[in-house]
Amino acid sequence: MPVLSVIMGVYNCPSQKMLVRAIDSVLAQTFSDFEFIICDDGSENDTLKWLNEKAAEDERIVVIEGGENRGLAIALNMCLERAKGSLIARQDADDYSDHARFRIQVDFLREHKNVSFVGTDCFVYDKNGLYGEWHRPEFPSKHDFLFNSPFIHGTVMFRREVFDRCGGYEIIGRCHKYEDYDFFMRAYAEGFQGANINKLLYTFYSEEKKNFVSRSMRLDEYRVRRKGFKQLGFGINHMHYTWKPLILMLVPNKLLNWMKDYKKNSLMHKQSLSLKMYKILVNRNSYIKFNYERYVNSNRAKHNKAPFISWVYLVKLNCDSSVYDSREYSR
């Protein structure tokens, strides 16, 4: 019986090259005691054919035909029903993992008995190549869920008991998204603790058209937030975080897309420039270093402590912190 079960849901993967790269990144892991369960969620192109071709090359791959397209939550639950491992790892079909990812995560869970699931940081790419990095808090608390999910779903490895107690993924609303955000909040409500390894062990595909957020998706996110925040024990003082998707519905999508595109195009340049300026300041004056770090820490805590957040601030955070977006349907 394998120690680890890797699960993946796939629907209409846009290219064989992308799918093969994702699968090969799993097969090339330095930790090899795993089974790889992939559910085709009713693809209408050649995705199932490509999957069967890869399954013929490696006996660790198990392909499930899901029939009609019913969403990622159902596809992953079908994988979980077949999974035999005491550990469960996620992998998305348009992303790829560092060859050492599983080994590092398995070792982490063995060393941290109080942690029930662990994710990682990741690179971000689109059709033009790498354009940024997404980072997560090392040991998220329930307050880290207020703005968005503090975990990147495709990077996470779970202990099997988390699914046994929480009951798998749930279908949320009409759009069948946000299953990860909902699941992580339910896990925390059950008393499980998650963590993130602050290493770039995953490469995530993020494209503007793919991340378009409709009004129905905003409403679904609102429902997920209302339910999850109640389970986590948040009261009226945190109500403005529940309203975030409703407020964003009032902002034109063209404006949001422009702000995100501007942020994406300037992200790497800003990170490089900020690091250079910070190093210069630190070398010249330790007092400036202290005040710089105090500003960063206070700015990070601002949305956790403020009793009210302006609409402009919410829109800015939505663009600047798109790394916390769990609405991507990355399969």
Please characterize this protein's 3D structure.
It is a single chain. The chain is an alpha/beta fold. It has 2 domains: 1-93, Spore Coat Polysaccharide Biosynthesis Protein SpsA, Chain A (Alpha-Beta Complex), CATH 3.90.550.10; 95-331, no CATH class. The chain has helices at residues 16-27, 47-55, 72-82, 101-111, 160-166, 179-189, 215-231, 239-242, 244-248, 253-284, 286-305, 311-320, and strands at 4-10, 34-40, 61-65, 87-90, 96-97, 117-126, 129-134, 157-159, 194-205. Strands 1, 2, 3, 4, 5, 6, 7, 8 and 9 form a 9-stranded mixed sheet that branches. A hairpin with a 2-residue loop joins strand 6 (117-126) and strand 7 (129-134). The chain is globular and about 55 Å long.
Mean pLDDT: 84
Question: Outline, from the CA principal axes?
Answer: globular
Tally the helices.
12
Total separate domains: 2
| Oligomeric state of this protein | single chain
Number of strands: 9
Q: Mind summarizing the main beta sheet?
A: 9 strands, mixed
How much helical structure, as a percent, in the residues? 40-55%
How big a fraction of the residues is strand?
Answer: 15-25%
Radius of gyration: 20 Å
| Structural class by secondary-structure content | alpha/beta
Unreliable stretches covering 5 or more consecutive residues: 284-293, 300-317, 319-331
